[in-house]
């Protein structure tokens, strides 16, 4: 924000909003992590949960790029990706695509 020329007050306000958004007293909802959903080292200390729609053009470009980037970086064995399928109704055939992706991850050896 400082590089963009924002005033100190604006920077402090943004920092305060960010701090409040990460309130440690907020309720935590666990995310189920199943072995068949993990891409990468299942023993990694950090697991990044990624929700994707198999028919979404954004997801089809960015999720493979994320996995490739992690796979080729020093974070390779430190971060795993928990792939979760989230069909978006606006995308034609998103539910059958999610079922196909889920089945392929469960049944095909990695």
Rg calculated over all Cα atoms = 18 Å
Structural class: alpha+beta
Residues in helices, as a percent range: 25-40%
**Biggest sheet features:** 3 strands, mixed
User: Mean pLDDT, rounded to whole units?
Assistant: 83
Total count of strands: 3
Given the structure, what is the number of helices?
3
Shape: extended
Measured by DSSP, the beta-strand proportion falls in: 5-15%
Whole-Å distance between the termini? 43 Å
Q: How would you spell out the order of helices and strands?
A: HEEHEH
Poorly predicted segments: none
Strand order across the biggest sheet? Answer: 1-3-2
Structural overview:
With 110 residues, this protein is of the alpha+beta class. The chain has three helices and three strands, in the order αββαβα. It has helices at residues 8-21, 57-71, 94-107, and strands at 38-39, 46-52, 79-85. Strands 1-3-2 form a three-stranded mixed β-sheet. The longest helix has 15 residues, at 57-71. The termini are far apart. The model has no long low-confidence stretch (mean pLDDT 83).
